[in-house]
Structure to design on (1022 residues):
């Protein structure tokens, strides 16, 4: 492993000062569930890592009718937090499915949102792919059964964060701290397509630190979350979805439909939302909305099955939101 | 005591960490070895420069393994092949130093897609060709058989390459004392490892001692010493210090063996009343670079008119090594899927159809009885015909399949028994326990022979100083050592009886050992406790030897398995619900560990069916999932209810159970899936992608 310096700041200001404007030169570490693996596999080789566990908040506090979640909150604590489960059930539902209990005991909210893709070309040192500064996306003509069916190109990764999807759905905002101050970025604008910048997955600058997730007051929402993964024990999802409904009696006034593991960013589907608006939720209307969500899917050579799986995830998330349990 | 459930003697040592695996061995002044491996599937090594590695901090030895000057042997034939190695004071320093070795490769064309090789569209990499034709096997009159058929099928079935995925990786700790080598090896054969070291290092066998007290899985990949063992020994010699060299997970996947793939295009014919009259198969498979990929076909069923041709296809990947019941899981899956398709063609229940085509029943051919027993026990009457028509996306059903395996016993298996005056009993034999429970089996057989509890016996295994015994492969350990141990124990008991008889005023031949006592047969009051009997021994312990003899072990087991699954047709996800394994193994010596072998074998086979897959990038030929993230293995929530019914055939002697239970599970699961969705999946693994594609 490339030798690195290790710094241990106690304040947010010192933590930010320890970062660097140069890409991946100085990186923050909290749970280390992704960074250490990338370092051991020679994918990421920083000169310095900055322990941010003390500098960041690891608490969940009420704020303006919503919640403010410190980026150092562990996934286990997020999943078990009574207010999170009550106000934003899809976030708790997503958090409890991540990895294994051991991973959830270490991993943090900030790390989960900022983790890098699982694509096996990205993660294997032998492949100098687009995301590492090379010229080729090996998935296009290679083994792409786990790659994107929406929003892909020139890279076809799927975003690996389970939390990002419900956070986009609930309209979360991320607070980013930098040497110059701070900015608030809506979750929906935080994650970026490879067409915009293939070397990163979000707008976070190298010398910025994601410090908080701010969730607005939920209002009268019905939440549904459904994940499909192959192994029950410890696997990445094939497709998942968060659906939020604001109801007018028995019809939908408005909806949010966001899909995960299908695109390089959490994928919000306005066609699906429009298909639900004004409708009563039934298996038929849910399936029609799911069809709309995947209408523009562009499968690669081996991932066409993901289209069906994603439709099922969306359909069942809609039904769960409506309180209809069929599976 | 034979056939009872005795808790593993080494259970407490394992769960407390007292048990030392090769991975745990630490020697004074020990260094750590690390191998540099080829990143290319096919290349010539042009030059190797060790100088930067030698200068790296903490490095004490470095060697070249692929000599560029050796023109007959300077090509690397698969990603992961050994090229050079270093030893350094810490594992991390060794890893860093290995990366400083400069290797110049001339990258050569590679072949990695079997279909391309078969079609003659791949670069010709292997001397003599990428494809090697085998012999044709035929019997009966194929044309007449097809003429008599009311229905025929023509389908292709296949299974895929998987790796052994041992929890403890391959590796050794090597320590020289002058020209004598002591090696702790994670091995299934301490005596064959000893011989491998001696031959490769050109030293006498008597100068080599191999130790393996505990090992974390082999499944056939640890029968022979790998390159890492020899590299470790050579690094230790150069450094004049002990070296530990354990492989990491990527190395395990790439370079320690695999189960070859298997495929067959089968044309088969069946009469209207359900007899298979014709079977014509062209099969092939890959065992990697230059290695074979055979498997039995047809599997078990009796077919009079048949023909089978086979081709081995060579690709630039790591070579196969025997993997738990080599060939049988492949033959079973391919044959059994065909069987259900034929059964459907004649509208027969799959089990009735199998019963019509089995070889005649016998102690070594019990599938008919086991299928009928499983039919009842599993609730087969609730199974509906192919294609679950209940509404809703979750389909539930069942499949069944059979398996066989040889097993048996052989010599030499030298057992040595000592009984001391304090009552202590030691049974010493140069065998090894790869997790099967051999230690416990040694104690049970000895205890049974001496009228003692297994906990009163001290088994000593896992050291070549304890004598010669075979490697643990082919399910032959129990069958080989049980007779030897029994004979040694009886010989020791004879000596003890001779000492005790005068004190009891009885003839030695009239004495028996039972219930912790030595007494006159038929008159338990005329005797003494084991402790008192041993006091007669005197200062030198009784010693006695035994070796394997024919008559106490035999070969060939039968098994039948049933699987129930649900398939969610909205997602393609298969969930396993229940598996029933009915399995014989001759005389059941240690019931608990024999059942554990069945659980483990079933779990291995369900992983073969559902999860494991060695995935190569089709363009570069490199493995994309050399880890445990994307090389999937069932976790706790993926394991179904597994019921094991062991059938004790005491009259047949000890046979062996390591391999038989891993054979038919994948087929049973594949058939359950077929039954659920009404579509036949003819290849593994049964991923959501495959299932949704089939629907």
């Amino acid at each position: 492993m490339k030798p690195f310096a290790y710094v241990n700041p106690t304040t947010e200001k010192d933590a930010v000062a320890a970062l660097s404007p140069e890409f991946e030169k100085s990186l923050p570490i909290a749970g280390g569930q992704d960074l250490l693996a990338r370092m051991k596999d020679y994918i990421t080789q920083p000169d310095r890592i900055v322990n941010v566990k003390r500098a960041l908040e690891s608490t969940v506090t009420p704020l303006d009718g919503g919640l403010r979640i410190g980026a150092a909150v562990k996934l286990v604590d997020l999943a078990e937090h009574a207010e999170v489960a009550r106000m934003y059930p899809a976030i708790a539902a997503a958090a409890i499915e991540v990895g294994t209990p051991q991973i959830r005991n270490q991993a943090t909210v900030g790390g989960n949102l900022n983790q890098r893709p699982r694509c096996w070309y990205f993660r294997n040192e032998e492949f100098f792919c687009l995301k590492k500064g090379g010229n080729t996306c090996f998935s296009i003509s290679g083994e792409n059964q786990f790659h994107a069916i929406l929003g892909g190109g020139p890279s076809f990764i799927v975003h690996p964060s389970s939390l990002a999807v419900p956070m986009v759905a609930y309209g979360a905002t991320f607070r980013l701290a930098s040497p110059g101050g701070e900015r608030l970025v809506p979750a929906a604008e935080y994650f970026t397509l490879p067409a915009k910048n293939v070397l990163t997955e979000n707008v976070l600058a190298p010398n910025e630190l994601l410090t908080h997730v701010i969730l607005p007051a939920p209002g009268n929402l019905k939440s549904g979350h459904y994940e499909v993964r192959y192994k029950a024990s410890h696997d990445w999802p094939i497709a998942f979805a968060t659906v939020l409904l604001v109801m007018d009696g028995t019809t939908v006034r408005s909806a949010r439909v966001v899909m995960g593991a299908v695109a390089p960013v959490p994928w919000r589907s306005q066609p699906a939302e429009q298909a639900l608006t004004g409708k009563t939720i039934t298996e038929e209307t849910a399936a029609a909305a799911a069809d709309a969500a995947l209408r523009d899917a562009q499968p690669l050579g081996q991932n066409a099955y993901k289209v069906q799986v994603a439709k099922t995830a969306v359909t069942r998330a809609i039904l769960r939101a409506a309180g209809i349990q069929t599976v | 005591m034979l056939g009872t459930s005795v808790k593993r003697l080494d259970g407490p040592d394992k769960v407390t960490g007292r048990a030392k695996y090769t991975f745990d061995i630490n020697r004074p002044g020990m260094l750590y070895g690390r191998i540099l491996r080829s990143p290319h599937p096919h290349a010539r090594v042009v030059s190797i420069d060790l100088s930067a590695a030698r200068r790296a901090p903490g490095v004490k030895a470095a060697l070249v393994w692929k000599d560029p000057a050796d023109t007959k042997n300077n090509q690397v034939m698969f990603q992961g092949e050994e090229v050079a190695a270093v030893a350094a004071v810490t594992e991390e320093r060794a890893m860093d130093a290995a990366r400083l070795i400069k290797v110049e490769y001339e990258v050569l064309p590679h072949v990695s897609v079997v279909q391309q090789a078969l079609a003659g569209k791949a670069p010709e990499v292997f001397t003599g060709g990428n494809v090697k034709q085998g012999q044709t096997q035929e019997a009966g009159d194929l044309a007449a058989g097809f003429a008599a058929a009311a229905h025929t099928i023509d389908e292709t079935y296949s299974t895929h390459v998987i790796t052994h995925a041992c929890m403890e990786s391959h590796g050794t700790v090597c320590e020289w004392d002058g020209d004598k080598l002591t090696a702790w090896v994670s091995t299934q054969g301490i005596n064959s490892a000893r011989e491998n070291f001696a031959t490769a290092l050109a030293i006498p066998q008597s100068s080599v001692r191999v130790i393996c007290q505990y090992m974390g899985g082999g499944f056939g990949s640890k029968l022979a010493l790998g390159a890492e063992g020899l590299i470790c020994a050579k690094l230790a010699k150069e450094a004049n210090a002990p070296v530990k060299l354990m492989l990491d997970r990527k190395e395990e996947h790439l370079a320690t063996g695999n189960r070859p793939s298997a495929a067959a295009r089968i044309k088969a014919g069946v009469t209207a009343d359900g007899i298979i009259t014709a079977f014509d198969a062209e099969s092939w498979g890959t065992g990697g670079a230059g290695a074979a990929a055979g498997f039995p076909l047809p599997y078990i069923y009796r077919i009079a008119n048949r023909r089978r041709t086979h081709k081995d296809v060579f690709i630039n990947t790591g070579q196969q090594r025997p993997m738990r019941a080599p060939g049988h899981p492949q033959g079973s899956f391919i044959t059994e899927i065909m069987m259900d398709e034929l059964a459907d063609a004649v509208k027969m229940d799959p089990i009735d159809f199998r019963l019509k085509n089995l070889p005649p029943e016998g102690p070594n051919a019990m599938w008919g009885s086991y299928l009928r027993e499983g039919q009842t026990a599993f609730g087969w009457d609730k199974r509906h015909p192919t294609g679950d028509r209940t509404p809703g996306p979750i389909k539930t059903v069942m499949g069944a399949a059979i398996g066989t395996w040889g097993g048996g016993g052989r010599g030499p298996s030298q057992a040595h028994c000592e009984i001391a005056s304090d009552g202590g009993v030691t049974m010493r034999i140069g065998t090894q326990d790869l997790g099967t429970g051999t230690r416990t089996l040694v104690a049970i057989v000895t205890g049974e022979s001496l009228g003692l509890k297994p906990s009163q016996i001290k088994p000593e295994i896992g050291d070549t100083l304890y004598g010669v015994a075979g490697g643990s492969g082919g399910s032959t350990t129990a069958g080989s050592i049980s007779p030897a141990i029994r004979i040694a124990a009886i010989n020791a008991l004879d000596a003890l009886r001779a000492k005790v008889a005068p004190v009891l005023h009885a003839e030695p031949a009239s004495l028996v050992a039972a219930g912790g006592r030595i007494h006159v047969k038929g008159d338990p009051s005329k005797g003494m406790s084991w402790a008192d009997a041993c006091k007669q021994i005197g200062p030198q312990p009784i010693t006695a030897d035994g070796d394997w003899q024919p008559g106490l072990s035999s070969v060939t087991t039968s098994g039948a398995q049933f699987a129930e699954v649900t398939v969610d047709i909205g997602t393609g996800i298969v969930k396993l619900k229940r598996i029933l394994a009915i399995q014989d193994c001759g005389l059941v010596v240690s019931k608990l560990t024999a059942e554990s072998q069945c659980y483990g074998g079933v779990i291995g086979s369900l992983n073969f069916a559902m999860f494991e897959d060695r995935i190569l990038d089709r363009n570069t030929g490199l493995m994309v999932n050399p880890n445990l993230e994307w090389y999937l293995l069932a976790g706790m929530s993926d394991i179904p209810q597994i019921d094991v019914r062991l059938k004790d055939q005491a009259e047949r002697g000890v046979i062996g159970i390591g391999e038989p239970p891993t054979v038919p599970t994948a087929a049973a699961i594949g058939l359950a899936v077929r039954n659920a969705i009404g579509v036949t999946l003819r290849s593994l693994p049964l991923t959501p992608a495959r299932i949704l594609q089939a629907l």
Q: What stands out?
A: The longest strand of chain A covers residues 237-248.
